[in-house]
Design a protein that fits this description.
Number of strands: 11
CATH architecture of the largest domain: Up-down Bundle
CATH superfamily of the largest domain: Dehydroquinate synthase-like - alpha domain
Number of domains: 2
Number of helices: 14
Oligomer: single chain
CATH class of the largest domain: Mainly Alpha
Shape: globular
Order of helices and strands: EEEHHEHEHEHEEEHHHHHHHHEEH
Mean pLDDT: 92
Strand order of the largest sheet: 4-3-5-6
Bound molecules: nicotinamide-adenine-dinucleotide, zinc ion
Length: 341
């Protein structure tokens, strides 16, 4: 088991990587614990939930809204939750975002922790202190910055994940290696078959590396003023693909990274060798390397991008395996490059 500390502005978050969920009691306070989970995780792991007061929410992105938060507040009242109660979110990114937001706002803030059960939640959604819900169809529109007291990551949960959800997490893992860690990328290249067969030790190593990378970036830029934008590599185009396809977030990000890497290559920033290594790894992990959208669709989407500031876009380019760069570029320049692809 590996421990790592994230120091947020208001509190610290302890990451427990490779800890068995059977030892959860070691990390919980003696006070009352209320667990929030979704119906699928509840049905898959019923024994885990027995000792606690439970709030089961539906599942999927469509329940990430204020109605679900209101339902949780009502259950908090029913369970006589007070300021000493600890809230534990057990589930994927949807549960973590909802549980973190409900705990951060009820009674002006309760202590909370996460047991992320998807690969995406372990390598991304549970770390960094962002939590919140969608509003009026706008993603993550209402939320807080607040760190969980702990995040317990047990690789045993990956055995029950559907392939699509597993690939979703892999997309973000490859992103972490590409923007920050050439050695991690090599490790992935050498361990493709172990990754695909979900070998727990290998996945635990990748979760640890991903958490380290995200934690380092977040520690330096918690409120996304600069460097944290690097984590958006592949996301500018990835979000557009996600909106217009049935791909999961991480699958769309993988296709978005290919577009971003190709733009980097066109500008002479990225070698053919580095580009080809990226494509080979993504393919070996069964991630999409062909963008399913036309150039016009990408350009239309970029024009609407919420991160557009002035007439330019903060775009993340790849310089090499393990190195990315943020640059504000005029939309017109991106349009020219995309039309050339
Ligand atoms: N706060 C952040 O910084 C941050 C970062 C990235 C993503 N997110 C958010 O995370 C959400 C996506 O997270 P996700 O991909 O985990 O989706 P999710 O929570 O919807 O989980 C995906 C599916 O997997 C099921 N599931 C969960 N654990 C399982 C297990 N062990 N075995 C089998 N099935 C399991 C869930 O019931 C669900 O149906 C999005 O809402 C996104 O906005 C937040
Ligand atoms: Zn992402």
């Amino acid at each position: 088991m590996e421990k790592r500390l994230i120091s947020g502005i208001y509190r610290k978050s302890l990451l427990l990587i490779g800890e068995s969920v059977n030892y959860i009691n070691k990390h919980l306070p003696k006070s009352k614990v209320v667990v929030i989970t979704d119906e699928k995780v509840y049905n898959l792991y019923p024994a885990f939930f027995q000792p606690y007061e439970i709030i089961v929410i539906g599942r999927g992105e469509q329940i990430k809204n204020l109605s679900t938060i209101a339902y949780i507040y009502e259950k908090f009242i029913e369970y006589e939750v007070d300021r000493s109660t600890f809230v534990l979110g057990v589930g994927g990114g949807v549960v973590c975002d909802i549980a973190g937001f409900a705990a951060s706002t009820y009674l002006r803030g309760l202590c909370f922790g996460f047991v992320p059960t998807t690969l995406l939640a372990q390598v991304d959604a549970s770390i960094g202190g962002k939590n919140g819900v969608n509003f009026n169809g706008l993603k993550n529109r209402v939320g807080t910055f607040n760190q969980p007291g702990f995040v317990l990551c047990d690789p045993a949960f990956f055995q029950t994940l559907p392939g699509k959800e597993f690939r979703c997490g892999l997309g973000e893992i490859v992103k972490h290696a590409l923007i920050a860690d050439a050695e991690m990328f090599e490790y992935m290249e050498k361990n493709v078959s172990n990754i695909v067969s979900r070998q727990p030790e290998v996945l635990q190593q990748l979760v640890a590396d991903s958490m380290r990378i995200k934690a380092e970036v977040v520690n330096r830029d918690e409120r996304e003023q600069g460097e944290r934008r690097l984590l958006n590599f592949g996301h500018t185009v990835g979000h557009i693909i996600e909106e217009r396809s049935t791909l999961t977030h991480g699958e769309a990000v993988a296709a978005g990274m290919v577009v971003a890497a190709r733009l980097s290559q066109q500008r002479g920033m990225l070698s053919d060798n580095a580009f080809n290594r990226m494509i080979t790894l993504l393919k070996a992990l069964s991630l999409l390397v062909e963008c399913p959208l036309t150039s016009t669709e990408i350009i239309d989407g970029l024009a609407w991008d919420k991160k557009r500031e002035g007439n330019g876009l903060y775009f993340i380019f790849l310089k090499d395996i393990g190195h990315a760069d943020i640059e504000k570029v005029p939309l017109s320049q991106l349009e020219v490059l995309i039309n050339e692809q």
